[in-house]
Amino acid sequence: MQQGVTFSSDGHQLAGVVHVPEGLRPGERRPAVIMMHGFGANRNGGPAWVCGQLEAWGYVALRFDFRGCGDSGGERGRVIPMEEVADARHALSYIASRPEVDPDRIALAGSSLGAGVAVYAAAIDPRVAAVMLENAVANGERTIRGMHTPESWERFLRLMDEGARQRLQGGEARTVHRFDIFEMPKHLQVNLRSNNSLMEFSADTPAAFFMFRPEDVVAKISPRPVLILHSAGDRVCTSEEAFSLARLARPPVELHLMDGANHFLFVDADPRVGFILRNWLDRFFPLGAAHVRGDE
Question: How many other CB atoms are found less than 10 A from the CB of residue 158?
Fold first, then answer.
């Protein structure tokens, strides 16, 4: 069962969908997973596929639009990673309040930037019980730089300087096109356009992404389990992002590097992805015995 919901984050109304599995007994609480989308995307596409799988396996799942994205409130195109971390924590509070959720068993999952947000939120919020990452951003500067030619990198640095000067002078901030921030390969751009992902961003966005470093805090998640799924040939977030997280995290952490897959693992759903997710959940975040509220 899918239910449209809204919840508040720092004064913004965020739009989401909760997936509730069939067969819940009165008063039963299940583990839950919050699935977060990538840079300037929304709750549809990959998040919908993942949450559908989780629902079929018996988990409660929430997918939502970060502020400024999709159907959520906030300044359109203002994508600030640390503000998305705040959104993730408010999503935790919301899902923990639902009667069908065990508040002690909530996991965070994310794609790309959303995966980096999951790392950061879990590192600072002890309510997170487990973390699942798909093609995660570990270091914003390295991610952006790895997608540029020398010429486009210089153009990107000029854009950041211009944005900083405009802010200091109190002038009207210009917008920045997605592909001026990220030089995404042409054959992958269709995934963004077909999902109505944002193409224009506030001038604050590139600098905020540039300074975002989930790898600096990933060690704080232990002893809670971390799953890292990454495409071996990803040209958006290269495999160095996955290796960095795996090196710096403390056990239990598991890395699966998948050959023949692209950046959008959850959009172009590979059968291996479902198999790995289900196997890892059974071992590290199982449904377990049903928890029924004592007042029922």
Answer: 10
Helix (H) or strand (E) run with residue 128 in it: strand 128-134
Of the candidates 252, 247, 256, which has an alpha carbon nearest to the alpha carbon of residue 222?
252
pLDDT per residue over 107-137, tens digit each?
A: 999 999 999 999 999 999 999 999 999 999 9
Q: Rg for the chain (alpha carbons), in Å? A: 19
pLDDT at 235: 83
Mean pLDDT of the chain: 90
- 9: number of CA atoms within 13 Å, CB side? 26
Q: Give CA 291 to chain center in angstroms.
A: 28
The fold adopted by the segment(s) 2-284 is Rossmann fold (3.40.50)
Q: Is the pLDDT of residue 272 over 50?
A: yes
What is the mean pLDDT of the segment spanning 251-275? Answer: 87
**Helix 113-124 × helix 81-96 angle, to 10°:** 60
Tell me, what DSSP letter sits at residue 188? G
Q: Please calculate the CA angle 294-92-129 and round it to the nearest 5 degrees.
A: 75
Which pLDDT belongs to residue 294?
43
Q: Which residues contact 264 (CB under 8 A, 6 or more apart)?
A: 45, 46, 111, 188, 191
Locate 24 and state its tokens. 């819940």
Query: In Å, what is the CA distance from 27 to each residue of 67, 81, 246, 286?
Result: 32, 36, 38, 19
